[in-house]
């Protein structure tokens, strides 16, 4: 009898965060740390942005009165795309 092994591709914590944000949800840095186990949530957001994901940060006041930043994925406006093209040139979108 021949044995078979199943290989499961490992998904990074940042990829899981990206998948979660693609559902339309927003999340705070504290929630990123607790839900996805990322010790530096700001670095994870920076990495997503570097990978071309348009992550918006919005200042908000939580129900207990504390201030926090919520992150969400959105579609860049025409003005943002034009500004990026001016800064980085046309090769950015090639």
Written description of the protein model:
The chain is α+β, with helices and mostly antiparallel strands and 94 residues long. The chain is built from 4 helices and 3 strands; from the N terminus they run αβααββα. The chain has one domain (13-93): Arc Repressor Mutant, subunit A, CATH 1.10.10.
Q: Which CATH class?
A: Mainly Alpha
Which stretches are poorly predicted, pLDDT < 50 over at least 5 residues?
none
Count of helices?
Answer: 4
Q: What fraction, in percent, of the residue positions are helical?
A: 40-55%
The overall pLDDT average reads 87
Spatial ordering of strands, largest sheet: 1-3-2
| Secondary structure: number of strands | 3
Structural class, by secondary structure, is: alpha+beta
Shape: flat
H/E element sequence: HEHHEEH
Head-to-tail CA distance between termini: 52 Å
C-alpha-based Rg, rounded:
18 Å
What percent of residues are in strands? 15-25%
- Architecture per CATH nomenclature, i.e. the level-2 architecture: Orthogonal Bundle
Question: What is the fourth-level CATH superfamily?
Answer: Winged helix-like DNA-binding domain superfamily/Winged helix DNA-binding domain
């Amino acid at each position: 009898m021949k044995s078979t092994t199943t290989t499961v591709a490992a998904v990074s914590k940042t990829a899981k965060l990206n998948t979660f944000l693609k559902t339309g949800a927003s999340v705070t840095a504290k929630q990123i740390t607790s839900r996805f186990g990322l010790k530096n949530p700001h670095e994870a957001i920076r990495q997503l942005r570097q990978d071309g994901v348009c992550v918006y940060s919005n200042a908000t006041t939580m129900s207990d009165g504390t201030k926090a930043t919520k992150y969400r994925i959105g579609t860049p406006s025409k003005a943002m795309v034009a500004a990026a093209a001016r800064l980085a040139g046309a090769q950015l979108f090639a």
